[in-house]
Amino acid sequence: MSSLLEDKVYIVLSDTTKRGVYPLHSYRYGLYRIPVELTDKKEIQLVTAALGQEFKIDEFADRIYVTYKWKETDVTASKPQDWKEAELEITVEIVTGEVVDIIYQIKPIENFPEAYWVKNYRSKAEQNAKMVIDLIIKNTMIGEKWKQAWIKKLKITEQEAQKKLEGLTPLAKPLAVAKPAATATPAVEAKRKGIDINFRNSRQTVEDHLGHHVWGPVSGSSQLGIHGTAVAVDFDICTADGACVEACPVDVFEWLDTPGHPASEKKADPAREKECIFCMACQAVCPPKAIKITRGVHPFEKVTA
């Protein structure tokens, strides 16, 4: 979305000013105007209920405040007791009405006194804000209303409108879905649940690949295991969506061909795991939840097979 809609930085449109939206001193300010109406209380409740699956939600008057929290970890010190960790947050504001304004304001790093050491804070906060915005649009009726507006105005099909929405929301991940059917196969069940977050305790390393561990079991081309430790990708449920590759600001991933694998014939390999800055963007956007960023784990940690 951010690549196609212009960021408004320190600019307030007159119509927006009347609604009480002001950028604060030293804050970075982004405003997106979505030409759809959201005034019905039941529709607003549906929006907040959907977003409440993933985020902290607050409401006041015609505003919905969506807060996303993430942790930054500094593991550059040689001793684990010297590693640092800080929790940061970004709030995206939805202003309902005859048009929908989606706004974010990035606080100065001084608002997080324990995070003085965090590098590239503003770019990370902005990336997370845009991920939240993309998710809001793609996973709530705001996006559905926008699609219907395109169909009517541009005379396009439902499929074309959906493709346009997908292009505008590259950072969106799906919200939680209904409980899986009782008849689901083990492979389908694993895909729904995502990567085994306890893999470091439940699996063993079977080999090293491009400087990172591979956690078994591994069997030919049909079972590829989990690649990486601090940045772990379950190759057996990775579908080569590519969202992680696009979202990573430091190019941790590179494509690896895996011909014959039933889920996909290429995978996002954490080939530069040591470059990870723990922004969590890849984990947030992965559709099958195949990625686990392990906070507090040193990328160079030695693991006994």
The residue ranges in which pLDDT falls below 50 over 5 or more consecutive positions are 1-26, 176-191
* Structural classification: alpha+beta
Discrete helix count: 9
Neighbour order of strands in the largest sheet = 1-5-4-3-2
Quantity of strands, as a count:
12
Strand content: 15-25%
Shape type: globular
The major beta sheet can be summarized as: 5 strands, antiparallel
Order of helices and strands: HEHEEEEHHHHHEEEEHEEHE
Spatial gap, N to C terminus: 43 Å
How would you describe this protein?
The chain is an alpha+beta fold. The chain folds into two domains: 155 residues, no CATH class; 108 residues, 2-Layer Sandwich (Alpha-Beta Plaits). It contains nine helices and twelve strands. Helix 4 packs across helix 5. The chain starts with 13 loop residues before the first helix and ends in a 12-residue tail after the last strand. The N terminus is likely disordered.
In short:
This protein is of the alpha+beta class and 305 residues long. Helices cover 27% and strands 23% of the residues. The strands form three sheets. It has a five-stranded antiparallel beta sheet, covered by helices on one side. Strands 6-7-8-9-12 form a five-stranded antiparallel beta sheet, with no helix packed on it.
